[in-house]
Amino acid sequence: MEALAPEVARQLNCSLSSDEAVVTSATEELDRLSRLADFPLALLLIARGGNNQGEKIAAATYLKNFTKSHYESDSSFLKGHHPYRNQLAQALLEVEPIVLKVLVEAFRMVVAIDFVKANLWPELVPELRSAIQRSNIFSEGARQWKTISALTILQTILRPFQYFLNPKVAKEPVPQQLDLIAQEILVPLLAAFSVLVDKALTVQRKIDTEIQRTVHVICKCIYFAVRSHMPSALVPLLCPFCLDLIRLLDTLKLDAPSPQDSILLKAGKRSLLIFCASVTRHRKHLDRLMPNLVSCALRIVKQSPYVPSLDSLSERVISLAFDFISHTLETGPGWRLVSPHFLFLLEYAIFPALVMNPKDIIEWETDADEYIRKNLPSELEEFSGWKGDLFTTRKSAINLLGIISMSKGPPTVTSASSSSKRKKGEKNKLKNRSVFAGDALVMPFLSKFPIPSDAVMLSEASNNYYGVLMAYGSLQDFLRKKDFEYTATLVRTRVLPLYTSSSSLPYMVATANWIIGELAGCLPEEMRGDIYSALLQSLTMPDAGPYSCYPVRVSAGGAIAALLENDYQPSEWLPLLQVLVSRMDCEDENESAVLFQLLTTAVEAGSESLAVHIPPVVTNLAGIILKHIPPIPEPWPQVVEKGFGALATMAKIWEGFLPDEKEENDSSLDWRSGWAVIAKMFTDLLQKAWITSAVPMEEQAFVTLPPPSGIDDASVLLGSILRYTIRFDAALDSRISDILLVWTDLIADWHAWEEMEDLSIFDSILDVVNLQRKYELKSFFVRQVPPPPAPPVALRSIIEGMGAFVVGGLSTYQSATWRACSSAHMLLNVPRFSFETEGIKQSLAIAFSKAAFCRFKAIESKTVALWKPLVLVISTCYLYYPDIVERILEKEEKNGFTVWARALGYTYNNLSVSGFSCVSEVKLAVMALTKVIERMVASSFQQMDETLNGCFLSLIKAVIHMKEVQDKEEDDDDGAEDLDDDDDDDEADDEIEEDEDSEDEHEETEEEFLERYAKVASELEGMVTEEGDLEDQVQELELGALCDVDPLKVVFSLMESYHPALQTITLPRQLGNLKQNVFTRNSRATCHHLGISATQEWQPFKWAGIFTRL
């Protein structure tokens, strides 16, 4: 180790050089040295005692990355991991803080594997306890270690325990490691915690940051320990600990914090997180302390009027205090403690946090997107939601107000004698007549603030009414309990006048838009038209003097989207489409992206109602998008991606808007001409995005590919072009082949596997293959070698690019297995391969069979259901190239061919699990099993006897099942219309039942949720993720020329050729109960040809007996 360290240090210093060649050489040398057993120890040595800080940080960073990639998987590393982990823990006590911050990341990985998961580090806790005891704060005068470093190790060890570790257990016990830490370390720390808090508070003027940091880290450790679990050793200490935290919180000066207060503010923030976790998970241990906790939180939230002048950390403390009160209100004892303070909270804490303040105005003008994120959240655009990192006091106050409004007081009926005589149903109604605090307190309070008059601009009245609007936005749950007329009156009298007032500030209008979006589901149908008109006007509001109206337009778009998603249908769609198209071509790309998203929502909601407007809209949008496509290959801006998404939605709606094919009328002609326009614009757009932007690089002799941005939506556009060409026998655009070449190059190197995104790519692969059926696409099989000065290297053809994508789906993303396998069958069976292109088909078969077999081996022990598509892909490859595929399987695993053959037979023998449901699947299985049996009978390997028996049994079952499936499909076709009618009736009945049961909807308790979650986790254990779309699993396979093969003739030919050998196979007795009408007259003739008598008695143990009852 000592001998290796100087060389490693030298290479680390070289890796920091500004010379690229030196860095490359150093990287390669470090990679070579990393194969040595002492390499991680050498890195540790440098991190602890390097020549300079840069060298230490470089060593620590390399060690972190090395541990991440090798610790769990590298066997050579594991052999010496005991010395490594111990020295790593020791190094954390010695290194300086900046290096400690990096090394602790490596230590976290070691802890997760060795201590948390495997529980194989028994000496860790005792040694850490000893280190803390000998640290500088707890052992004055002793050298030893810094307490903060030792506590950082403790924090790292405790961090994984903040979550439940075993999802299969509804009530998970406290992990024994956590119990041990609590007994050995946390209990002594809490015994000294009160003294540490005293020191932190009394020496605050001297700014003893080490003591303050120690208090903060201990708070983090306790938070991790009690967030989910409650170690028994901590129960008696929890209340005294919380009292110390209350003392700490009471000393914080949130209204006038100094820069030196930041550490204690962090400790105060962590204290409130502990309170929230404790009241949610462990309230029974804090019952007697709840009044103190509530009083502390009330004192903090009372400082909400100072939020405009506070920094983010102080604001976060107030926000958490609001959150704690919200958590407390959800408990019975907590409600009794907080409810007397409702009016105080509303008047002196919540409402002051909602009113408009100077910080809002500054944020509106300087960072409108941030303002929208915090105050006007919607689902219209990705940035418009309240993210987890946007912890604002206003957000927490709004949440608390919503909870208060739903709180119920005592019933309004006071006559005990009359209530005692009521029936059970009437008593339930009486129970529901309890007064909501929203009726008794919130609404009367908000009604005290009138709408600002026209003469009033920025004033206290307008600021207050801004707070009123924010408060209304928090009451959607409360208003859903009221009738529609109640909400209609509220909106009509308190919100809509803002749209007609000549002096309404943009801030007010934007907030009014947001409220309507929040209450969209509570609005009666008769007033939605007026609201929609007002929102449409806001959507076009121009900037007025010093005021930017961008948030007004974005919030109006969000509210319109909410109305449309709640089943509102405008009487005319054209005005909205005209507004959107006219405003999309603006300088602000963020606003354009929002409008594109609104257009997508409108098209999805309007569907056929606005389909007639799609061709002209597509024409205008394509021109707008073309302006924003980068001229050089770089990731698309958001407006382009959103634009492609809107076009993809319109393409789907237009194709779904299909007139009756039997009638050749004006409507069908308009539909065809509209599709022609759409296909032309899509072709122009893809040429610009993929071909024009793929410019040659001067320093390279090849064309750089465009970015894969929006590949899913672009694939939808491509598919629309191809389907139009196929459906109407349209002339093939000369640009299609070039577009397809770029598209296949993009998907060939696809790595961002996501189920919904991949779906359109697989669909387009089908369209490309269908197009090739009708047209001979240039470069489909073979791509021309590029002319000089490009290197004479053969590039991927169209089919090779699609094949590479399919191989990636088979190998990488398990949820894509069904679609990838379906595409593999299509690429092998459908195209017409010539003698010259046979090598391409062979290379595809090799790649598919290898990828499918490797994937099969990965899931072999988990589920049979996902075996089927994989073994069938190998079957197709095997039918074309049996010798080559057999060699591949044997190369991948010893006896790999036998493994696959057994899997094919076993899968078919377990129809209830694997579900062979299509004729094409059964036919392929019959042909593959026949080929396998033929191979095994001809082989001299005796170890195949058992496999042969299983495959032959599966073959017999497959032949019978094929006939059953054919008969079932005929029956299904005959009864399809009746089934559709029945489904409609069932859906109507379901809707009625849902309406009847909506009032009695059961709210799931925490215990019920945990039990359900544990049950699902247990069911999922050992399984792999499968695709959720059942339609992909029941589609017929494309067999191409294999469809012309009569599987029965193949089976009988096998029996005729290998009659003596097959006669020795023993079959189970239950085959005697199989149906007698499976085989046709041709099969009877074959039986006669084989010398089998149709009158012969049943012979249950001979394969020939299958034919005796024909």
How is the topology of this model organized?
Elements: H1 5-15, H2 20-33, H3 39-49, H4 53-70, H5 75-79, H6 81-94, H7 97-117, H8 124-133, H9 147-158, H10 176-202, H11 209-226, H12 235-250, H13 262-281, H14 290-301, H15 312-329, H16 332-338, H17 342-354, H18 358-366, H19 368-375, H20 393-405, H21 416-420, H22 424-432, H23 437-446, H24 460-473, H25 476-480, H26 484-494, H27 497-500, H28 506-518, H29 525-539, H30 550-565, H31 574-584, H32 589-606, H33 614-628, H34 638-656, H35 666-692, H36 711-727, H37 736-748, H38 755-774, H39 798-811, H40 817-829, H41 838-859, H42 867-880, H43 882-892, H44 896-909, H45 911-914, H46 919-938, H47 945-974, H48 976-997, H49 1006-1020, H50 1047-1057, H51 1059-1062, H52 1081-1090
Helix pairs in contact: 1-2, 1-3, 3-4, 3-6, 4-7, 6-7, 7-9, 8-10, 9-11, 10-11, 10-12, 11-13, 12-13, 12-14, 13-15, 14-15, 15-16, 15-20, 17-20, 17-24, 18-19, 19-30, 20-23, 24-28, 28-30, 29-30, 30-32, 31-32, 32-34, 33-34, 33-35, 34-36, 35-36, 35-37, 36-38, 37-39, 38-40, 39-40, 39-41, 40-41, ...
Mind explaining what this structure looks like?
The protein has 1110 residues and is mainly alpha-helical. It has a domain at 1073-1110. It is globular.
How far apart, in Å, are the first and last alpha carbons? Answer: 81 Å
Helix content estimate: 55-70%
Largest beta-sheet characterization: none
Q: Approximately what portion of the residues adopt beta-strand conformation?
A: under 5%
- Uncertain runs are 383-389, 410-427, 695-702, 986-1000, 1025-1031, 1072-1110
Number of helices: 52
Overall pLDDT: 82
**Backbone structural class:** mainly alpha
